[in-house]
Structures
1.
Amino acid sequence: MSDSVRIVEVGPRDGLQNEKTPVGVEHRIAFIEALIGAGLHTIEVGAFVSPKAIPQMVNSDAVLRGVDHHPDSEFHVLVPNEKGYEAARAAGAKVIAVFASASEGFSRANINCTVAESIERFRPVVARAKADGIRVRGYVSCVLGCPFDGEVKPQAVVDVARTLSELGCYEVSLGDTIGVGTPLKAKHLLRAVAGSVPMANLAMHFHDTYGQALANLYAGMEEGCRVIDSAAGGLGGCPYAPGATGNVATEDVVYLLEGMGIATGVDMPKLLAATNAISRLIGRPPVSRVASALNAKGRMASSE
Ligand code: HMG
Ligand code: MG
């Protein structure tokens, strides 16, 4: 597995959307710039969703404009409907992400419509984005379990992933929103979805609630998947997925990949500094194992 892997850093969106302490525009921009400085160049920076639903993502337009001058980076923003699309386009978005669910319960809780209705909402968004030269990524949530409906059949994931791909999403990210998956289930799911959407167009977006995310990623990599979503420090979760914790931590993913001989281009000390800075701001230490280990090592070295 010594080929390349693309990391999509989602901390500034998926991470901060679930933090009780709202983080202001300047600090969100500083966090994103620290991540770019650490070598992460594909970053989800905000969401054009209802401010009543996710107040933490208010002012995503200012965040996007504030980082726009980094020509070598690719910034993604979430868009749930045409209203969000218009705001994202006005703020200069070049890549947007629409988000559907494989389960009805989460779809209703998260975006207040059925799965089929959400696809109909995305249809004009994707068509307009295509006409405007904006690329569209797609998410499928609850691919390995739903907080409301329980078990989710792989076929439900296959159907939504295929639909998003047919609509025109260049990549479909498979979200284990509540982090309940285990490696063999992750492997079987990827194999099933890859029967309808080429593996090269799939990404893994695994939350780490049950501590399985790295194992699940490894299993998915064995199936051939080479795109990983992660959040610096293991930040966040989804406010509409009760009990779910953050994404797999970027530090942990980078440590795993580098240990496997896969170069990530990420500077670990700089990533750690970015994680520590945002952790200080939100007032709690990073949940990342690698960040904890490196911070402990740093404390020991400075006390010697
Ligand atoms: P709704 O209430 O059904 O929408 O919400 P509506 O069309 O009836 O409008 C209600 C109000 O929202 C109106 O305002 C609209 O103008 C406003 P009012 O007249 O009451 O003042 N509104 C908007 N405002 C700003 N931007 C918009 C927008 N749309 C409507 N785009 C809606 C439906 C989808 C808008 C809402 O449920 C929503 O915003 N949901 C987003 C929830 C969310 O962001 N969840 C977290 C992201 S998903 C996730 O984390 C999972 C993921 O990481 C993958 C994984 O882990 O699996 C991606
Ligand atoms: Mg997520």
2.
Amino acid sequence: MSESKYNPFTNAQIQFDKVAEILNLEPGMRELLRQPMREMHFTIPVKMDDGSTKVFKAYRSRHNDARGPGKGGIRFHPDETADDVRALSMWMTWKCAVVDIPLGGGKGGIVCDPNVLSPREMESLCRGYIRGLYTQVGPNADVPAPDVGSKPQHMLWMLDEYETITGAHYPGMITGKPVGMGGSLGRTEATGYGVVYTLVEALKAAGTDITKTSASIQGFGNVAEYAARLYTELGGKVTAVSCWNNTDKKAYTFKNKDGLDIQKLVDIKDASGSIDKEKAESLGCEILDGDSWLSQDVDILMPCALHNQITPDNFGVISRSVKFIAEGANGPTTPDCDDLIKDRNIFMLPDFLCNAGGVTCSYFEQVQCNMNYFWDRTEVLNKLEYAMTKAFKAVYEVSKEKNLYMRDAAYVIAINRVAEAVRLRGWA
Ligand code: NAD
């Protein structure tokens, strides 16, 4: 999914290098932490329903596991690249470290379009992924999860293949499984809720009353939907949502200046997070072009869809009313835009802090699987809110103490924790 101008892996390295300099990290440590420690590239042959054989490219990257087993999702996308997977595995290392869970960073991907594969072909692909990778993954090595395009059923097929090969039950080998089959209650809403838990703390720190705020959101998939739900439950007003339209093959922004009815929008969206234009019009939405979500007169922007969405080229369209950016997506802001955001004094909630609710809940899923005892939804969400709030407060404190931009403060905490684990293990 990389675009030529902004390669996510280059972006991840630029962000790392900047903070490695602030921390004066030793050269060997820098070299170790600015690239994945282990990477697998392999192919998966699948017998298609029409009798032909199709070969799919697959990746898994483990960026760093000094603090614990690798952890990170598997993306199913036709434009997936090795560099996407590398960058995302690196961000996972920082994400797990900033919320202080004992896991490292991993990520996987299969170059495929899950929307055009039959269930039987998908099952074959998922099982093939594990056959290619089973020596490298496992509850104590590297723990996959769902990501863009992959779903709980896919995780269960992968778990079943792993358990068939190894001959025992290892429910902590993969997370994001269906509830009742080792999945955790609260995982579906965890990332979006986590975005809002950190946003609530940022609003408190800035002395802003959430009930007097409005927000514009890019995306209406898993992260965006649950962020919108909780934000509106707490009294905020979502006035614009942008998402992909499967019929026209382009994005639209759906706007209602008095506030969108989130439940009604959820009722008309399809499984991929796409909203039909005519149905949205019948709900009283104004239909604008896909990029318009960025230029709305709101207090809060929540990019919750894609990477490389806020750049120096479009920064100028952001309204002066915007005071907070909550990055639900991974890498939505390019590194060359951070100074512009900082200069405008916008409160940045950086991706690997803001969207860490998902991995935190995945960690809870592993803990519950290992105990073979499952918590109720309230217990999961209370623990999640506690973890996210604690992580926000630690980052905010460092940003105030050292007069750092929030993204840099989050990196200072995460890199210090990982570097310390690397030193204690004697790796560098
Ligand atoms: P999703 O597939 O459920 O939803 C993606 C949404 O983006 C859909 O509504 C789609 O219509 C929209 N979209 C696609 N192209 C668009 C465009 N050009 N303009 C506007 N909208 C567009 O994905 P998700 O799980 O919600 O993930 C979104 C982002 O959050 C990704 O960057 C992902 O890596 C990140 N993330 C997800 C989780 C998680 O738990 N789901 C955790 C951490 C980070």
